[in-house]
Amino acid sequence: SIIKGDAFFAFDSFDGAGKLAEELETLASRGHSKYTKLVPDMTGVDPDESFSVVPYEKGYHFLCFLQEKLGGKARFEPWLKSFTLDHMGKSISRFDFQKHVTDYFAEPANDGGESVDMDSIVDWDAWYYTEGSPPEP
Known about the structure:
By secondary structure, the protein is mainly alpha-helical. It contains seven helices and no strands. It is globular. The two termini are 21 Å apart.
């Protein structure tokens, strides 16, 4: 939203939600619901077989969920910058992501915001391993 504005952000979000719903339906109809998880088990699977918009759109919804739960852009964007700088040029796992966000928000915010116990507001397993649509906030 910083570069193109809130209206574009809202439209792009709406468009992405439609693409996600369509892809979830397509994968389910083909018997590939296991690829609708944010973190699917790829053991012995050709990555080309599972390629879709699902991880991108579910990941986007997860980041939006986190931003909302943390109180909005003012609290979320400094973390996002920190995360990006700390992991630039690196591959990370869901564990690296979870540790960074949990550790970052365990400390009181520079803006006076209180520390946050991420495990009390995020059902990590539901977000990572649930097939189909993202969990409801």
